[in-house]
Amino acid sequence: MKEYLEGQVENMTHDGRGVVKEDRFPIFIPGALPGERILYQVTKKGKKFASGDLVEILQASPQRQEAKDPTLMPIMPLQILNAQGQKAFKENVVKQALERIAGQRNIKIKPLKTMDHPWFYRNKMTLAVKDIQGRLEFGIFGRKSHDFIPVDQTYLAEKPLEESIFKARDILRKHKIQAYDPLSKQGNLHHIILKRGHYSGETMILFVCKNETPLGDQALYQDLKAQIPQLVSIAQNKQEKDHQEILGRKTKILWGDKYLKDQLLGLSFYQSPQAFYQVNTPQTEVLYQLALDYAQLQGTERVLDAYCGLGTISLHLAKKARQVHAMEILEEAIQTAEENKKINQITNAHFQAGKAEKILPQWQKQGLEFDLALVDPPRKGLDPSFIQSLGQLAPGKIIYISCNPATLARDCKEFVDLGYQIQEVQPVDLFPQTPHVECIALIQRVKG
Asked: Which residues are annotated as a binding site for S-adenosyl-L-methionine?
């Protein structure tokens, strides 16, 4: 039997685990908060750190609050930390990244923009699916494991979406839909994704399956339509690889429309099944308004938008700029962006599918120059060759939207080396109850 150890929690890791040190050796404990005295067990020891389990809280932090649902700790580990504590934690994550990685100690970091109602905010939920004792369950996986945890609530999905999720589960049970079992190779469904337009209420269901055999039949689709308000689309994605990214490349519509439709800052947007769309609509509007305020467009500028997705920010920029050139790796997203351009009657936005680091040098060879560049990359940040190409084009201003402070800081260091200065960074809380934080950075050219 492993021994229980007593320790003081000194701080938290960037992913929300408490840090206890034993002879200066760090042990990471999920569920422990800074300032707490705890009993813990070491479960795994590596060369640089160890992992452990929380056994008992001997002295609780004044910022600790009761968890809404302890079983949901893998997807919202900060649910035990009050609003003041979450704000301080996220501001510190951003500050530490910029100081340690970018080497920037004098950057203006503004206070985190928080939500008034930080529960039930997501317009999209992705859940794993598994048969347990012959009963279909929706659930999540344990932290860094494949341990399936059934759930009956999420506290994160918008309330109408939350209701639709579990209505869908009950209907799938009724129609005897079988989850894919990687051991027996039986069944087909392994994830389900539901999306809902925050303003429109339109809902889309995406089944993620092992193969292309259509899941269910028209009776199932009609049952879903009858019981899920404003259901407009049912689609199926094929992902045949185990333990890879959730979505595969091929998606087909089983029933209904190709898109759901919603609004952002007064413009209308179609969402296709696979394309990226920010999951917190109210806070996305805060984020995008900040981008427009930073841009200060006068109507004469040529703007670059890299990693443009469905064109959500591109089209807002196009309303105020002379011309916008935007790129996105996913062909489906670019097709949808073109549709979004049409429905908003915008003619001065150009979209192209492909990798940003390949398209930008092509545009450079064509003689395109940009007054402003907006980048919104995935968590891995910008490709080094893209940064170099952008540095050669030398736009006067760069607006960097990031969901990962570490890669934001890394890339900011590169821009500083290319003659730019980070004017300010504004964190925005798009993901309450989780350790994730979105940032928008204003980067200005100062030499060259």
From this structure: 278, 307, 328, 376
